[in-house]
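OP here, attaching both records as promised.
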Amino acid sequence: MKLSFFGAAHAVTGSCHCLEVGGKKILVDCGLQQGRDEHDDNALDFPPSYIDCVVVTHAHIDHSGRLPLLVKEGFSGPIYATRLTAQLLSIMLRDSAHIQESDAQWQNQKGKRAGRPEVEPLYTLADAEAALQQIRALEYDRIFELCPGVRARFQDAGHLLGSSLVEIWAEEGGETRKLVFSGDLGNVDQPIIRNPTFLTEADYVVMESTYGDRNHEPPESYTEALAQLIDQVFAQGGNIVIPSFAVGRTQELLYFLREIKDKGMVKSYPDFLVCVDSPLAAEATRIYAGDLHGYLDEEAIAVLQGGDDLFTFPGLTLTQTTEESKALNMDKTPKIIISASGMCDAGRIRHHLKHNLWRPECAVVFVGYQAEGSLGRRLLDGAKTVKLFGEEIAVQARIVNFKGLSSHADRDHLLDWADHFLPRPKQIFVVHGDAPVTELFADELVRRGFSAHAPLYQEVYDLMEDRMLAKGVVLESKRTSGGASAPSPAYQRLQEVSRELEALVGRSRGRSNKDLARLADQLRQVMEKWE
């Protein structure tokens, strides 16, 4: 009986672990590498025929985004997930496939002029549709058979609607080992969904550590703070623009806004408009408004029992077409615009920022993490101007950051979850965190009496003898079959921009010394920020 780590090892994304038992191979998650973790072309580390079945902890792409690739390359077995995860995957995987196809199209447009051969998308919409056909939806707390001698059960992880931690009982040679995969553990006291489930028994635990080195700031009253901001901005005739992740965070905001309206907390404009301008968010909101029996916390259940909807209220509009999106900025009525992407680096949100950032009567409200280098982070860091669609836009709107609204458990809550295992597991494998964080969190677990370590990519562990069989390697050393690291589409875009910059510098000869010095200073600042 062996456990292999094919992703999220010393990394935050790309979750993928393989359990071998009784000749069967069970994959837990099959996620895409994203952002800083993109060290290769997201190719699979094993032939699809190697896998007998897949268990998916939740719908986020870093846990599910390579399922269409797995099916594309020949996997035909069942994919197990909770009912709500299955529904969210129906929109998340289709959206991911659209991005893969768009990235390939962009590369080919550039590559054709440069004489490079065409590239294929990692997978297509047809591949995503095929993967969805193999999903088997189950409810929480039901024990089911994965394969002969192996049983599993989903429990609520409290991270996203339908998210789960997975218990697996695996039998081999007359002996049984219990494994627990945490998936992503949620923050406590979030709206809508329940707190993470505590478990008490396991031989082995595969545990996330996203916030394993820090705690969240004490939560503020979002309804009161948001209502006060709405009053102030609308009294001045401005809009509130909220960059938000389409699945999960947008629905939390709608939950808060429904409460604000129900309690009449906005005095200046009680019938204010809320526009969700993201087709993906609109689809996710419809799923959140469906059958949520067995998935909600007590407060949300009480709202439903009172006859109210969780996410709909007078004045709410879900836009679909680009024409409807454009019309939002033509209409001068003060409104709240919720749009993707959550970090402002793509999507319709950039159009809304172009039309509202320069207006001092408006506000831009951030409700999620903004990564280094993203437009959202630059705005939070106090940028005076930003460039959108080739135009320099002055930042005069009020920039507001609602800290603490996180869907991940922080350090103390992660430790509290681990402390419920009595007796201590034989080993805790710390995954799903930046490399230094995984090591720090594993060290903290050891100080608390656990056996724990942060596995490297491709580590193999013997679960019968409780020992490492293969140590694994650091992610940066992974190579493709061609012997060279495959650049991601994002890196290729960066290379393209660098060539355009070189051409710009060449065209700048003869400009005034003042302009040249200003350009040089701006470039120096960018380089120093990324060093």
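Record two, same layout:
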Amino acid sequence: MAQPRSTATARARELAGLADLAYRTGGADSRAEVFARADTDGDWSRVTAGDFLTEVGAVAKGLIGVGVGAGDRVVLSCGNRYEWIVVAFAVWAARAVLVPVAPQASPARLARVLRDCAPAAVVVEDGRHAGVVSALSPELTELARTWRLDEDGLAAMARPGAYMDSSAVRFRREESGRDDPAVLSYPMSTRRPVRGAVLTHGNLLAAAGGLVDRLLPAEEREPGRDSALIGLPLAEVSGQAALVACVLGGVRVGVTPSGAQWPRRVRAFRPTVLVCGPDGLTAVYEREKARAREAGWDHLNAFNAATDLAVDFDRSPRKGAWRRVSRAMYEWMYGRVRDALGGRVRLAVCAGGRLDEHMDSFFTGSGLPVFQVFGTAESGGAFTANGPGERRAGTCGRPLPGVEMRIARDGEIYVRGPGVFPGYWGDPEAGAAAFHEGWLATGFAGGMDGAGHLTVLARVRAQAAPDPVGGRAAVPAAEPARPAEPVRPPEPARPAAEPARSAAPPAEAPPAPAPAAPPPAPVDPVAELERRLRAHPLVSQVLVIGQGRPYASALITLIADQLEYWRLVNNRPLSLTREELADDPDLLREIQAGVREANAAVPPEWAVRAFHVLAEEFTPRSGLVLATGELRRDAVLRAFAEEIDGLYRMRETQRD
């Protein structure tokens, strides 16, 4: 009689760390194909477990050879590619801490991360971030080496340890523990300073084990059968949890960045498991709809009818013969959608954002089951997931094994479990503030149905930030948290008391009065407006225009990485350009609220009555910024004269 297979969660508990996962996988069968790498033409080649471990060991020796010690931080600024996986597992094998940074991160964001984590080594994909690291090298006293993957690649990283014995890596691995920090994650955020969430090896293994057991039950797993293509950014914890889950589940893994090449690489890879964000699936649907529109109205009407039928088929609790026959009439269209994703996908895992319920039902009803996953950086990347036999469209599923979840009275989601992080890097107070009576406050609002399926509604505040009204809401069945005591401003210093009068007759003249304090310098209303507007988390630069105009107006630029974070939180598709995002009504309302707040601090005649938002920041290269960082006002006024005139024409038109 066949023995039942152990759960992935149980096997994850047996591992001492993430490097142990890779070495056990390779030790079981060195010829097993565990990864796939894409060349510059988009063609895929398979990598065996033995070859992968050889590369990991060589890079790990190189890290040790340049002096990277246990617990040291290694910053990896790289997009989704095979080399990212090798470097990550090499860092863990050397018992160091991985600090992933998205390649599209702004230089200012990378600089903040480097200063905060003080890395011992930095790996960048190309020259985009190499200049930032070089400029900060005098401050980074612990930095031993910087590598560029576009130069010598992994070979350059391995060179310092070429003559080192492999036992150095083995000793590091044997000393590793599940409670050791594995990843220092700096989530995209509109709050400053950005805090790094510390995730242990045990956190990521627990989240990955729960995902495997939920999405690929033991009875459905066959070694070597499944191949997964990950389109989630590996720089984010959701992508890292997906990567570890695939390795733990024995699934061959390929990674690819989202973008123009994504559809072609998916078709070439032909995965059975697709891991991506909601934008990837939505883009496939929109592309097929555009093809139907180009073919004529008849094709478009047929496409719309097939969409409605697939949605109805998925939502219907009873799928009788009539519904099955009706659905079969449009199998030609559903087949085109599946072919666009390689033709072999048997399940799609959607994470990193909420997929619209209509799209969720469409893909599942067309024969491509979609299972949504939700998590935060502080919860190991995933704490709820749908799964075969227990999926509910439009929801993020039920809590993973070992995870408990509650909804507070104000709607905020609280969780606790083995995937929850221990705290923030270098900020124990912020780490403690993220918890309430042992429960992690996620910062997201949601609802839970009777079966325990979670629906995420919106982000209510940044993680570990206290509620502006007064403290955190309590978990249900607990006492409401009391508002924190208001912080009173320090009282002004009182003048010293007059000296007591002497009983003796006055023999001295009274002391001369102290010179009066100089009057405070007048506040420049333009400078004050610009300063207050720049305090908004989305705003980078501000130029207020008022001289010679009937009222004040402003040009406002946005911070690139904060704009991308806003896109993610508000579920805007990746197909939107930055200019289109800058015109988004919801984003403009956020900027309008900041303008209104800034106006309250200046005289009414200086209040900004109109503003124009620019998606791109002013740069020295454009000639609009001085070397000191100050704007060249005259140059900006000339460059954007048409936009500025439009602000006044618009107001005049509204007045008429």
